[in-house]
Amino acid sequence: MGITVHPLSDVLGAEIKGVDLSNILDDVTVRDIHDAWMEHLVLLIRGQSIDDRQLVEFSSRFGSLDGAPIGSERGGKVSTDEHNEITVISNVIEDGQPIGGLGNLESDWHTDMSSYDEPPAASVLYSLEIPPTGGDTSFCNMYRAYETLPREVQAKLQDLKAIHDATLTSTGGLRHGFEAVKDVTQTPGARHPILRTHPETERTALFLGRRTNAYVPGLSVEESEALLDMLWENSTKAENTWTHTWQVGDLIMWDNRCAMHRRDPFDNAARRIMHRTQITGDQPFYKPPEVTPTAA
Ligand SMILES: [Fe+2]
Asked: What is the pLDDT of residue 69?
């Protein structure tokens, strides 16, 4: 019995049914999941009961895994004792110490670690405890964000890059060791092409990373702000997004190369514990699609 794929919206996302991730998956099942992932950008697999070893085993079928990022955004430990590939995402405090990163605040739209030269390709997030309300995760389709732009804007973007701010966390806090940005032309962080060719699907996606402190070199600050505002508005409008409300045992895997994500805040009196793995990425690039000559 193979898996079945059930689209979750017209924008992106599909639920995979017929798979138990506590088992080692055969190569055909992994290929089918991978193919559905490339088509739908975000996959949901519900009702799982897996430990960290099984989460690492499943995730590593789709690429090599990064170690957990060094240093939590809130000062707590970020990886589990046995598995350095697992990042703990949580607001829970135990013995006076956060057990994970990110806390309970809203996290604004972003691509994970886009300020790095080689941002991760993807993330896999598994829910162990969830608050009764809040903490929903939303995704937006960056292929469509590109495809729905006017042709002249698409053409203009081909030669542009953007600086992806390294100073702020996804919840808006200043990262340790950085100073607040006063002039966006001096924002520290990687410079990536605004158009990005997906290395597997070869489709073109818009690549924005994060809005705060972003800057498009070569433009005046005013021109850069106006262009970025327009691109962000187009990318994150409701008809280009899908929101997931978590249940315990949900596993979500998203493609960081063509989908951005954000998270709603939740009551800090409630507990939220997620374990996450991250698949290693490579340097973003843009290769214009080959134009098929038309008959004269
Ligand atoms: Fe994130």
From this structure: 64
Given CA atoms 76, 82, 83, 88 in this order, what sign does their dihedral have?
negative
User: Residue 35: exposed, middle, or buried by beta-carbon count in 10 A (0-12, 13-18, 19+)?
Assistant: exposed
Ligand 1 mean position, distance from CA 2 (Å): 31
Give the residue ranges of DSSP H helices in 128-191. Answer: 142-147, 151-157
Q: What are phi and psi of 275, to 5 degrees?
A: -115, 135
pLDDT per 10-residue tile (average), the chain, 296 residues: 93 98 96 98 98 97 85 54 87 89 88 95 97 96 98 96 92 88 94 98 97 96 98 97 98 98 94 95 94 67
- Rounded to the nearest whole angstrom, what is the distance from the C-alpha of residue 108 to the centroid of ligand 1? 9
Which residues have CB under 8 Å from 95's CB, separation 6+?
A: none
Residue 259 Cα to ligand 1 middle (Å): 11
pLDDT number for residue 83: 82
Distance 159 CA to ligand 1 centre (A): 27
H or E element, residue 162? strand 161-163
Please, where are the H alpha helices in 185-287? 221-236
Instruction: Spell out the domains of the chain, with CATH numbers in brackets.
Output: 4-132+139-279 (3.60.130.10)
Q: Judging by beta carbons within 10 Å of its beta carbon (0-12, 13-18, 19+), is residue 64 exposed, middle or buried?
A: exposed
* SS3 category, 133: coil
Residue 32: phi and psi, rounded to 5, are -65, -40
Ligand 1 centroid distance, CA of 252 (Å): 12
pLDDT of residue 295: 61
Tell me the CA end-to-end span of the chain in Å, nearest whole number: 50
Q: How far is the CA of 295 from the centre of ligand 1 (A)?
A: 46
